[in-house]
Amino acid sequence: MVSGFRSWVGMGVSRGVLAAVVVAVVVVAVAGGLVGYYVTHPPTKTVTVTTSTATTVTTATTVTTATTVTTSTAVTTTTATTVTTSTTATVTTTAVTTVTTTPTTTTTVPSPSTVIVAEDSMWPESYFTDGGLFFGYPGWTDWAVYQYLVNINPILFEEYGIIEYEPGGLAVNWTVSSNGLVYTFYLRRGVLFSNGKDPWNCYTAWLWFYLSYYMSGNSSTWYYGVSIFNMTPVVFGPATMEWLNSTVTDWNNPPPAALALFENSTWPIYCKDKYTLVFNLTSPFPPFIATLAFNPIDDAAYILRHGGPGTPTSPNYYFQLHPPPGTGPYYIAEVVMNQYMVFKKNPYYWGRNLTPAEIAANPLNAPGYFDTIIIKYVLEDSSRLLDLTSGKAQIAFIPWADLALFNSSKWVIQTWKWSAITVQLDVNSHLWPLNCTDFRLAMYHAINVTQLIESAFYGYGEPMVGPEVPAYSNFSGYNFYDEGDYPPYQYNLTLALILLEKAAKECHFSVTLPNGTVINPGAPPLKPIEFQAFTGYGDWAVTGAQLVAADLEQIGIPIEIVTVTPDEWFTPYGGFQTNLQDINQIPPLTFNGPTVYAPDYLHPCDYWIAFVSNMSSWGNWDAWDNPRVDYDVLKACTTINITETWLYLKDAQKIVYEEGPYDWLVALTTQVGGSFVWPSYLTAIPDPTETGQTTVPIINTIYPTGLQPWPLIYR
To answer: I need a labelling partner for 712 at 20 to 30 A (CA). Which of 128, 212, 374, 577 fits?
Structure first.
């Protein structure tokens, strides 16, 4: 596994004004019962649109009732800013047109044969680029196709912020030794992969983990960037794979020589028997269970039979068009690259006859309701919006600019109550004057985060204190979010100026305020500081950079905004040592880029390791390092005493808060750039791991509202 689940924005250029006009007149709401995650508003809404070009909008809307709710909308687009149908409204420069809509409602219960179409704004990044071992992001297949040894309880997490782990689709139980070093998993029996041929058992599990190790380049830190396994005795490479492929023809009954390899207990991952998988760690790592809830597993025997995974530098791309089977309730029936995927019910699914009570107890194992679900990649925001409102798609990713059009009880807007996605200001504290603590803190107190949330993120966020996020407010009975009970850095220009004056004297520079006052006259004037903003993922990064620049210029700090492509932004970054080596290529100021960060795994240690330690494999963008914090994080994440973990991280947070290596700005309450919307006659569970990308609702939890076996979650 490669650590650092990167959460791309993945949306095309927003056409908020055009889309607003179109939706205001063509939106036809569909009915259903109450459903979680939707914002209640009166059924009649008024939308005011201001544009700088002439726009003509006309519409004819027909509602046809069948086994599903169908709307037929005639829309002709003649230019980028003209949409023509039968009733005309014209918007001209500086003119304001107000359109009032009263949704027409039809209520039916969709049948299982109804085809559900979901439209995403991006094709999965890194889609099976590692030799068939990992689907990529967004994780359309998670739980639905590829299952886990461990599940998170999504109801407890979404409703109460309680992180509780339970057996996933691939295991029935596990035990942990008293010293925290040995994890023994008892695997689910009688499970087949969706090809109906390959069994799920310890032998295919063993193969999947060692294929992952090999594709990391046989790195000692192959597992989430931490060295928790002794890989010294392991000899696994092309010769081993070739031998296994020729030797094992029946993965239910491997020959004695292969069985001896699988059961070799000198290797850190081994089989005790056919259905018992053992992980032997070199030191306690309490997040281990959490990491397994982020490792979807596919058919390693299938990968081996079809050429193997390739090599770390030259992976086998066969699996992009021939996805490996999974054990979940759906399988990938068809793939057209960069267009769509078709998911159909898996006839071999082990849980197809689960009772409602069993599903309610573990909803991520739900067998699903609909026989066929199609996920399409549709880049244009306006196209997804029209498809959703016309009924061509039942689920679609809608950009922030247009979500307000769905603030009705007839629609569901996917949001998170307990956010784990952070947007932060990255500060290269190796560069002058950013290496002055008071200068950094002066900047943070000059930034109006409330305005930033409203203007750049359309209100979908809340100020936060880092490096932890609100999702950890109730973890094992402790509040791991803001252990020291510190407030977010407050917008306070008076305090900012006091700190700036101290920094100017300490670090020998002068600044001139907008009113002409010079702080620390006689010292060299402060030169403009570069703020690098990426483009191509909507407008929030550039807008945010402009807002931050305007705030900093209020206290005389000049900012130069430089725009770069996402590829250019990524170039210097890697693990801690890479970032340290490339520190002069890393910009003085930037947001945490196209990869606005979401969890690798739901455990408090994740962000501490990633953001502020020298163990970081991804996320400590500016290679900030403090020996005391490194010590605290290491001790916190290798003790099996949860109280000790909390105390170590509380000590570390005090240092981080006072030194301010980064400005933890916003915890987002949706995916970056927007969110998924669907009519309220459907319900679904959102991805509880909050991968931060445009992840669709979990496919096997899409049910007609009221027919889902678990309780609805209300916002």
So the answer is: 374
Nearest to 469 by CA among 459, 454, 479: 479
Instruction: With beta carbons less than 8 A apart as the criterion, state whether 556 and 439 touch.
Output: no
Helix H or strand E encompassing 291: helix 288-292
Question: Tokens at residue 40, please?
Answer: 């209640």
Question: In whole angstroms, how far apart are CA 128 and each of 295, 427, 461?
Answer: 14, 34, 32
- How does pLDDT run across 664-697, given as a tens digit for each residue? 999 999 888 899 999 999 999 988 776 656 678 9
CB 419 within 8 A of CB 669: yes
**Nearest 5°: phi and psi at 440?**
-60, -45
Closest CA to 373 of 394, 359, 356, 355: 394
- Indicate the helix (H) or strand (E) that contains 115: strand 115-120
Element (H, E) at 245: helix 238-247
Nearest by Cα to 268 from 288, 296, 297: 288
Give how far Cα 35 sits from Cα of 38, 119, 675, Å: 7, 21, 16
Q: Rounded to an integer, what distance in angstroms lies between the CA atom of residue 41 and that of residue 405?
A: 11
Q: Supply the pLDDT for residue 55.
A: 34
Are 302 and 245 within 8 A, CB to CB? no
Compute the distance between CA of residue 510 and CA of residue 527 in angstroms, rounded to an integer. Answer: 9
Q: What is the pLDDT of residue 691?
A: 66
User: H or E segment at 440?
Assistant: helix 437-446
pLDDT in tens, 276-309: 999 999 999 999 999 999 999 999 999 999 999 9
Two structure tokens written together for 61: 């809307």
- Extract the runs of DSSP E, i.e. beta strands, from 491-625: 511-512, 518-519, 529-534, 559-564, 589-591
**Within a 10 A sphere around the Cβ of 100, how many other Cβ atoms?**
10
Residue type, 72: S
Shortest CA distance to 510 belongs to which of 557, 442, 552? 557
pTM of the entire predicted model: 0.84
346-373 as b/e: b if 16+ CB within 10 A: bebbbbeebeeeebeebbbbbbbbbebb
Q: Is 646 helix (H, G, I), strand (E, B) or coil?
A: helix
Which DSSP helix (H) or strand (E) runs through 647?
A: helix 642-659
CB count within 10 Å of CB 489 equals 23
At residue 251, does pLDDT exceed 60? yes
Assigned token pair, 14:
């927003």
Residue 312 in tokens? 């770390």
Query: Quick one: which of 135, 133, 166 has its CA closest to 149?
Result: 166
